[in-house]
Amino acid sequence: MPDPAPADDPTPADDAPAADTPAPVPLLAPRDGLPPVIDTPAALADYAAALRAGSGPVAVDAERASGYRYGQRAYLVQLRRAGAGTGLVDPVPLDDLSAVQAAIGDEEWVLHAASQDLPCLAEIGLVPARVFDTELAARLAGLPRVGLAAVVESLLGYSLVKGHSAADWSTRPLPEEWLVYAALDVEVLVDLRDALAALLAEQGKTEWARQEFAAVLAAGPPAPRQDPWRRTSGVHGLRNRRQLGMLRSLWEARDDLARRRDIAPGRVLPDAAMVSAVQADPQTEAALLELPVFRGRANRRLVGTWFGALARGRALAESELPLHSRPGEGPPPVSRWADRDPAAATRLQAARTGLAELAAKHDLPVENLLSPDLVRRLAWTPPEPRDPETVAATLRAGGAREWQVELTRDLLTDAVNRA
């Protein structure tokens, strides 16, 4: 690639690399200049034609407004392909992005942490046939840091400026410095893909990566969470089912309001405020308004909504109250295994020890060798008979890929047969 725009007279930092290690070159501007935002059908058609005429994989990224808006909608889509350059697509005013989808066809998409972006891209009709996930590839290759900036610096020698990933990308018009940041996110993705592919081939992990990328695609959009209110920060501080019922009612009221206003729920009412309200159990609206956060102007106007939700939860019949945990959630917390089932604790320890050694041997994170949840389930409820074929079938049923099954089947068979 041509040399990117260098920093102006950079001053070495105190933690600058040693003299024999070249300092990373800052990426400060797109190599072809900052392209205009594509926000009209005509501009989209022109860029789609350029994509179709381009060659090789397509770098793709998306920016959301997490923490500001309700849901995970894409507010900017960045693409780059050799021969087509970079496109910054604003999906908000564009109802139909099928021209982009058709232009890419079956070509490989290159994304970093693909599972984060694929759902919001699918919502606007952009779905890949093949992917190369540079974050996942970096994990399989055993790189110590797998964030985009860290991997780019390690393998390509460039430094990416951080700072706008958590911005409110629903802002219009988007500031130029944000657009520069967004364009740079796809600037070197294809180069990074090639470097990682070479590293994986050198380590004999190309087939592992192919299976992992296929699994990312096959996973599809995440299923709706059961009882999402249970993910409220601080919920474990609630003591009884009545309090859980009040929290659920308050969470549902907040979620409904957030959805209607298209605001992130936490900006409507923080989790900590909901838990505090449940614990205080105010008997009047005035008492609720005495609590922190609820004294603010916005929540004073909504006091009837919040107090009504608490009252509904308080009035639930005993049979309608939520359980302390959902039935069928899987094994209990590992900290309780030694008391509840010492043999299961022994099996899990053996499995974890063997997997840690195997992961170290192949230089990859143990969680990428096999899902920790699948390991816990196997140790808590071993299959019968406890032979390699049955263990392998159990692993496949739990979503393990063939390369994972081949590597772990024998050691896990040994683990589940521990007394």
TrEMBL record:
One GO MF annotation is: nucleic acid binding
User: SMART domains under this entry?
Assistant: 35EXOc, HRDC
List every stretch annotated Disordered.
1-32
Biased composition range(s): Low complexity: 10-30
Recorded hits in InterPro entries, A to Z, give:
3'-5'_exonuclease_dom, Exo_C, HRDC-like_sf, HRDC_dom, HRDC_dom_sf, RNase_D-like, RNaseH-like_sf, RNaseH_sf
Residue span, HRDC domain: 240-320
A Pfam match: DNA_pol_A_exo1
Q: Which domain of life is it from?
A: Bacteria
Q: Please list the GO biological process terms of this entry.
A: nucleobase-containing compound metabolic process
Gene3D superfamilies noted in UniProt: HRDC domain, Ribonuclease H-like superfamily/Ribonuclease H
Which SUPFAM superfamilies does the UniProt entry name for this protein?
HRDC-like, Ribonuclease H-like
Q: What is this protein called?
A: Ribonuclease D
The organism is Geodermatophilus saharensis
